[in-house]
């Protein structure tokens, strides 16, 4: 959670006294509305009945569905916070995507990350632009637990950090809309795109901890073609028996070559030793 400036702390004190809720609850809601670009909030705090949502224009949802007083409290508080944020915004809000953040002892809540915006109610974050500057301005940023994301749609890049040097991924043709993190196990990170839910590990890594990663070589799917010359006898120039024997010898030679190739593959994979391969090779070649 961002630190409040003196003017932000004064606003929290004022709203706490007028709405009869704690400064912690007001601070939580202030951060939630700010994360929602001043027009929405997704919050989770016991003084607001647990989890809920607010959107500018009148939509308010709280866990206690029939508690009209609580709805009015949330709507009025969020509306006033929204106006205060607008009056103290020093750079405009821009695009964002949904991300998940840990909210102390109150569990998890959804929060939208803001891009390049600054508000005088908060102390500027000195680590705000943590991604490599040659990537430019991100299309969206967000965070989840201790993981931060910056998505650069125009250059097809995604920066991810847990506090150290970021990893840069090639997003290919994905149009990323949000992130998720599976708790427990390996805590794998997933993202959503036009292809559904995708694991982050499937994206190619461009750089790792500031060090460029060369692209993985593409598999060679083209099989080598051995140039062979086959003599075709003129009609009626070879007796039938000789022709059959020649055909059988050629077929036998082809089978032996194929067998040698398979044995070579077994040797490359370590299933047989080189000495065993050479012994079998001599035996097979003696049959040609």
Architecture overview:
- The protein is of the alpha+beta class and 288 residues long.
- It has helices at residues 6-19, 23-35, 68-88, 240-268, 274-285, and strands at residues 40-45, 50-55, 59-62, 89-91, 98-102, 108-112, 118-119, 140-144, 147-152, 157-161, 167-170, 178-181, 189-193, 196-199, 205-208, 211-212.
- The chain has 3 domains: 6-119, no CATH class; 133-212, no CATH class; 223-288, no CATH class.
- Helices cover 31% and strands 24% of the residues.
- The strands form 5 sheets. A 6-stranded antiparallel beta sheet has the order 8-9-10-11-15-16, with no helix packed on it. Strands 1-2-3 form a 3-stranded antiparallel beta sheet. A 3-stranded antiparallel beta sheet has the order 12-13-14, with no helix packed on it.
Task: State the main characteristics.
288 residues; 3 domains; alpha+beta; three-stranded antiparallel sheet; six-stranded antiparallel sheet
Write the layout of secondary structure elements.
Blueprint (H helix, E strand, L loop, with lengths): L5 H14 L3 H13 L4 E6 L4 E6 L3 E4 L5 H21 E3 L6 E5 L5 E5 L5 E2 L20 E5 L2 E6 L4 E5 L5 E4 L7 E4 L7 E5 L2 E4 L5 E4 L2 E2 L27 H29 L5 H12 L3
Antiparallel strand pairs: 1-2, 2-3, 4-7, 5-6, 8-9, 9-10, 10-11, 11-15, 12-13, 13-14, 15-16
Order of helices and strands: HHEEEHEEEEEEEEEEEEEHH
What portion of residues belong to β-strands?
15-25%
Q: What's the helix count? A: 5
Main β-sheet description: 6 strands, antiparallel
Count of distinct structural domains: 3
Uncertain stretches of 5 or more adjacent residues: 97-116, 225-238, 240-244
Rg, rounded, reads: 33 Å
Mean pLDDT: 76
